[in-house]
């Protein structure tokens, strides 16, 4: 016999925290002339001894206290790669659940355009890097939401900028 009452959650909803605390950044560089794809996507491999060892990912990091998400995105790109962001675009907000903290964490997702696919200066978090076509990046990235972010960034910037929505999605230079 089924109950007419809805099942109660094991943890009361009011006890689950919601936090905007991280950024994900799709770093893009123009593809070499004559190539079918307009962009190359930067992928980073997690180093031994850090969480998710061996996983390929996008630039990812925490928002510092008092820091705006866009500033965190620029800082994380510089810290993790040594690259300077030329243009930054707001893409999405991705929620995920952190079990140990009973928190729904929100990741603010950006696309960052850099001047060219140059040599990347890795931080201790990563041990390898690769500039990939969008299709190859999606194949390698461990997190499904990162697949979505790459697709969205490539669609948004398919003509080189965000077109009619450039004035809404482009973050003003710092």
Report on this structure.
This protein has 174 residues and is of the alpha+beta class. It contains 4 helices and 8 strands; from the N terminus they run ββββαβββαααβ. The chain is globular and about 55 Å long. The chain starts with 16 loop residues before the first strand and ends with a strand.
Can you write the helix and strand succession as a string?
A: EEEEHEEEHHHE
Give the DSSP E fraction (strand runs of 2 or more residues).
Answer: 25-35%
Low-confidence spans: pLDDT under 50, at least 5 residues?
none
| Global geometry | globular
> How far is the N terminus from the C terminus?
61 Å
**Count of helical regions:** 4
Q: What class do helices, strands and sheet pairing give?
A: alpha+beta
Helix content: 10-25%
Give the number of DSSP strands.
Answer: 8
Rg measurement, Å: 18 Å
Question: Main beta sheet: strand number and arrangement?
Answer: 8 strands, mixed
- Round the mean pLDDT to the nearest integer and report it: 91
Topology, element by element:
Layout: E1 17-30, E2 39-46, E3 56-57, E4 59-62, H1 69-81, E5 87-98, E6 103-113, E7 126-132, H2 134-140, H3 144-156, H4 166-169, E8 170-171
In short:
The chain is an alpha+beta fold and 174 residues long. It has helices at residues 69-81, 134-140, 144-156, 166-169, and strands at 17-30, 39-46, 56-57, 59-62, 87-98, 103-113, 126-132, 170-171.
Keywords:
globular; 174 residues; 21% helix; eight-stranded mixed beta sheet; alpha+beta; 4 helices
């Amino acid at each position: 016999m089924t109950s007419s009452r809805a099942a109660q959650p094991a943890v009361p909803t009011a006890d689950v925290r919601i936090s905007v605390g991280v950024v994900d950044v799709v770093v893009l560089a123009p593809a070499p002339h004559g190539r079918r794809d307009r962009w190359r996507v930067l992928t980073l491999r997690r180093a031994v001894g850090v969480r998710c060892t061996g996983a390929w990912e996008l630039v990812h990091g925490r928002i510092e206290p008092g820091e705006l998400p866009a500033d965190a995105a620029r800082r994380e790109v510089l810290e993790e790669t040594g690259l300077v962001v030329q243009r930054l675009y707001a893409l999405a907000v991705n929620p995920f659940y952190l079990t140990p903290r009973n928190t729904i964490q929100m990741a603010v997702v950006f696309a960052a355009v850099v001047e060219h696919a140059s040599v990347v200066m890795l931080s201790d978090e990563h041990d390898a890097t690769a500039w990939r076509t969008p299709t190859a990046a999606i194949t390698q990235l461990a997190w499904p939401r990162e697949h979505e972010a790459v697709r969205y960034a490539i669609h948004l910037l398919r003509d080189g900028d965000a077109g009619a929505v450039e004035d809404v999605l482009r973050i003003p230079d710092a």
